[in-house]
């Protein structure tokens, strides 16, 4: 029996089906989860996908954070459930305080969509073990509110504890402090990033590369080997 990975759909989710496809390509079973249902259907991990949940009203992710499903996600994430937040999902994770900091509007005040070069800074999380530390990858990026910010104490702590998982290379697309593209919690089971690995899992689409697939093979190997 393979691992079952849930993908939450909120009103306004955009990339839930793409994420399910990426999970399937990695060899796991995707499980659709609805935002109004607290039951996670006994999945082994959860992905909060990209999109514009609730139209990004108030702040991106601010309303989704209070969806019934998030009550269970928060509880189980604190108990060790692997959770990945992609783009809007990353915003939801910061609003839910599963990850520190906040996401603000891009410093150039425009939506941006491009292939983005990243450096893997931490290959020891539940979602990045199939990468190597220092590896450079290309992942599609598309966001309006992708600027990661935090106070200096939090930023220094993230750096000191190795919790910056990905960093933008060559070009900072949104003004994120210290070029941070993704971070993890202290336990390494919760990861959030702005770029979209689900759009880089087969040569036909996205960057024309498969640099995003290791996100999903990493978690599969962790769950199957557990």
Automatic annotation (TrEMBL):
Its main location: cytoplasm. GO terms for molecular function: ATP binding; glutaminase activity; phosphoribosylformylglycinamidine synthase activity. One of its GO terms (biological process) is 'de novo' IMP biosynthetic process. It is found in: Cytoplasm. Pfam families: GATase_5. InterPro entries: Class_I_gatase-like, PRibForGlyAmidine_synth_PurQ. It catalyses: L-glutamine + H2O = L-glutamate + NH4(+); N(2)-formyl-N(1)-(5-phospho-beta-D-ribosyl)glycinamide + L-glutamine + ATP + H2O = 2-formamido-N(1)-(5-O-phospho-beta-D-ribosyl)acetamidine + L-glutamate + ADP + phosphate + H(+). GO terms for cellular component: cytoplasm. Its EC number is 6.3.5.3, 3.5.1.2. Pathway: Purine metabolism; IMP biosynthesis via de novo pathway; 5-amino-1-(5-phospho-D-ribosyl)imidazole from N(2)-formyl-N(1)-(5-phospho-D-ribosyl)glycinamide: step 1/2. The active site is at residues 87, 196, 198. Keywords: ATP-binding, Cytoplasm, Glutamine amidotransferase, Hydrolase, Ligase, Nucleotide-binding, Purine biosynthesis. The keyword Hydrolase applies. Part of the FGAM synthase complex composed of 1 PurL, 1 PurQ and 2 PurS subunits. Part of the phosphoribosylformylglycinamidine synthase complex involved in the purines biosynthetic pathway. Catalyzes the ATP-dependent conversion of formylglycinamide ribonucleotide (FGAR) and glutamine to yield formylglycinamidine ribonucleotide (FGAM) and glutamate. The FGAM synthase complex is composed of three subunits. PurQ produces an ammonia molecule by converting glutamine to glutamate. PurL transfers the ammonia molecule to FGAR to form FGAM in an ATP-dependent manner. This is Phosphoribosylformylglycinamidine synthase subunit PurQ.
């Amino acid at each position: 029996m393979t691992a079952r990975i849930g993908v939450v759909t909120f009103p306004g989710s955009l990339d839930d089906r793409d994420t399910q496809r990426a999970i399937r390509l990695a060899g796991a079973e995707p499980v659709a989860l609805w935002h109004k249902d607290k039951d996670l259907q006994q999945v082994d991990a959860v992905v909060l996908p990209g999109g514009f949940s609730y139209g990004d009203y108030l702040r991106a992710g601010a309303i989704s954070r209070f969806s019934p499903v998030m009550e269970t996600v928060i509880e189980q994430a604190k108990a060790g459930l692997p959770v990945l937040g992609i783009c809007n999902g990353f915003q939801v994770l910061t609003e839910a305080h599963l990850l520190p900091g906040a996401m603000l509007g891009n410093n150039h005040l425009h939506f941006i969509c491009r292939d983005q070069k990243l450096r893997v800074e931490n290959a020891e999380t539940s979602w990045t073990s199939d990468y190597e530390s220092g590896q450079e990858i290309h992942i599609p990026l598309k966001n309006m509110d992708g600027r990661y910010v935090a106070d200096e104490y939090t930023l220094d702590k993230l750096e000191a504890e190795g919790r910056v998982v990905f960093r933008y290379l060559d070009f900072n697309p949104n003004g994120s402090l210290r070029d941070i593209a993704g971070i993890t919690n202290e336990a390494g089971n919760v990861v959030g990033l702005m770029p979209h690995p689900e759009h880089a899992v087969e040569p036909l689409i996205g960057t024309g590369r498969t640099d995003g697939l290791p996100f999903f093979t990493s978690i599969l190997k962790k769950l199957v080997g557990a």
